[in-house]
Please model this.
Amino acid sequence: MTWDYVIVGGGSAGSALAARLTEDASTRVLVLEAGRPDHIWDPFIHMPAALAFPIGNPRYDWMYESSRSRSWAAAASITRAARCSAGRARSTG
Ligand SMILES: Cc1cc2nc3c(=O)[nH]c(=O)nc-3n(C[C@H](O)[C@H](O)[C@H](O)COP(=O)(O)OP(=O)(O)OC[C@H]3O[C@@H](n4cnc5c(N)ncnc54)[C@H](O)[C@@H]3O)c2cc1C
Model:
């Protein structure tokens, strides 16, 4: 098979880009997504009020952390340089 475009990452931007590109039915687009597919009955994705559940959950979040930061630690009133969670989605958008 051949593709006109290969999009790495099927999150928000990748999915929107794929949708726009395939409005021309002759354009072939491959989307590669490393996370799991979305599901219509998954409340943690579809209910904004459930935001606290997916963040920090490896099923939904790549669990990245920032590098150690003195300025962030100072803002959080922590004496030593500290890391903070840097949530990144892990599912099709
Ligand atoms: C748990 C959580 C909940 C959120 N809830 C909300 C909300 O309620 N409202 C809101 O406005 N924003 C929310 N956000 C923020 C929103 O998800 C992001 O701002 C938005 O998705 C960023 O879009 P993006 O296309 O830049 O990246 P993403 O949507 O993160 O897309 C990047 C995609 O690339 C994939 N990927 C990464 N590496 C590879 C690889 N090597 N190969 C293939 N695929 C790869 C990832 O799995 C991911 O799906 C939430 C974020 C998280 C983490």
Summary: The pocket of flavin-adenine dinucleotide is lined by residues 8-14, 32-35, 48, 51, 54-55, 60-61, 87-91, 93 (CB under 6 Å). The longest strand covers residues 5-8. The chain has three helices and two strands.
